[in-house]
């Protein structure tokens, strides 16, 4: 409800704020890893548990605005994140997607980001349809702690170990 009612929205870009966090602040921001060009964090308003976002640190809205090195780093990190997310969650499948623009469904269209959503057979239920509610089986901080260990081998900045 905080998000829906606008209580969590900042005047600046929330993703740029996350990109600028110091390692000591990363856990609170749900950031798992930051490299010079990209970073990975948990979605604060997830579709399901362990829903990741991978994005460039630089504020761009579209793939065409990425430099070649940023494009390569983004999709290398998407690939690395899928491997680690499957390992951490035992996901049967993954949705990987980008919504380019508001009309495509982007909640934050001004800063490009890639969604990686773990999926399991039967993981949807009647709650979103009947009550517009999602049931999360795990707190965000628990998901962060579990995923943190899976990214330990990826070079980059991270929060101090939990």
Structural account:
The protein is of the alpha+beta class. The chain has one domain (14-150): HIT-like (HIT family, subunit A, 2-Layer Sandwich). Helix content is 30%, strand content 15%. It is built from five helices and five strands. The chain has helices at residues 14-19, 23-26, 68-89, 127-131, 140-150; strands spanning 31-34, 38-42, 52-56, 93-97, 114-119. It has a five-stranded antiparallel sheet with strand order 1-2-3-5-4. The radius of gyration is 15 Å and the shape is globular. The mean pLDDT is 87.
Topology (SSEs and partners):
Layout: H1 14-19, H2 23-26, E1 31-34, E2 38-42, E3 52-56, H3 68-89, E4 93-97, E5 114-119, H4 127-131, H5 140-150
Antiparallel strand pairs: 1-2, 2-3, 3-5, 4-5
Radius of gyration: 15 Å
Number of DSSP E strands:
5
CATH superfamily: HIT-like
What's the CATH topology label?
HIT family, subunit A
What's the CATH class label?
Alpha Beta
Largest sheet: 5 strands, antiparallel
Q: Structural class given helices, strands, pairing?
A: alpha+beta
> Which strand order spans the largest sheet, edge to edge or round the barrel?
1-2-3-5-4
Report how far the terminal alpha carbons are from each other.
28 Å
Helicity, as a percent range: 25-40%
The CATH architecture designation is 2-Layer Sandwich
What is the residue-mean pLDDT, rounded to a whole number?
87
The gross shape turns out to be globular
- Segments where pLDDT lies below 50 for 5+ residues? none
Order of helices and strands: HHEEEHEEHH
Count the DSSP helices: 5
Number of domains: 1
